[in-house]
């Protein structure tokens, strides 16, 4: 199945100020998530950003919020956004959810399992997820794939949202996100 821009939404899980430094690739994760948020914002993809206990872990990285200023930010205490019941009706109304964030094997995994239980088609953006260790990230991705989530890359998401070179934003998106060195 391909990502359908009319049925998809982006969910960014817990990429927060006091948590990012503990990840295996903090700078790369932040840069790749920002790339994804900015590209999908240009395509007007609805976006939700979750924050796990922001009083203790800080808020979403400022660069990510700046890349997608229209994104809705929700707070949670549960590891799963679904269990926390913090996801807006606008996200739940769509059939497909593109998910990235941290930690891959905890909050991302539990959220993905919850979305799958709701009957959603879930796409986990492997290169915009991170955990404290590479082994935990790998185990989380494998488990989500085994459960029925599609594991994708940022470029896969972008090309599927565009659909064809005839898309009105294809040239602009290509020049900005597909040419030269990318994070």
UniProtKB/TrEMBL annotation:
UniProt-recorded name of the protein: Isochorismatase family protein
Biological source species: Pseudomonas xantholysinigenes
Segments forming domain Isochorismatase-like: 9-155
One Pfam family here: Isochorismatase
InterPro entries associated with the record: Isochorismatase-like_dom, Isochorismatase-like_sf, Isochorismatase_domain
Domain of life: Bacteria
């Amino acid at each position: 199945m391909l990502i359908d821009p009319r049925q998809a939404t982006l969910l960014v899980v817990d990429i927060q100020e006091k948590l990012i430094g503990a990840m295996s690739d903090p700078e790369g994760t932040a840069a790749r998530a920002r790339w994804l948020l900015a590209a999908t914002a240009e395509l007007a993809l609805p976006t939700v950003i979750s924050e796990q206990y922001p009083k203790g872990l800080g808020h979403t990285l400022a660069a990510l919020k700046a890349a997608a200023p229209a994104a809705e930010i929700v707070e949670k205490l549960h590891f799963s956004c679904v269990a926390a019941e913090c996801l807006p009706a606008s996200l739940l109304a769509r059939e497909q959810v593109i998910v990235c964030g941290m930690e891959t094997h905890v909050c991302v995994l539990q959220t993905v399992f919850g979305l799958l239980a709701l009957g959603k088609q879930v796409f986990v953006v492997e290169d915009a997820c991170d955990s404290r260790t590479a082994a935990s990230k790998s185990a989380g991705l494998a488990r989500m794939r085994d459960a029925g989530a599609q594991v994708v890359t940022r470029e896969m998401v972008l090309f599927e949202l565009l659909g064809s070179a005839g898309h009105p934003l294809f040239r602009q998106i290509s020049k900005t996100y597909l040419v030269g060195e990318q994070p």
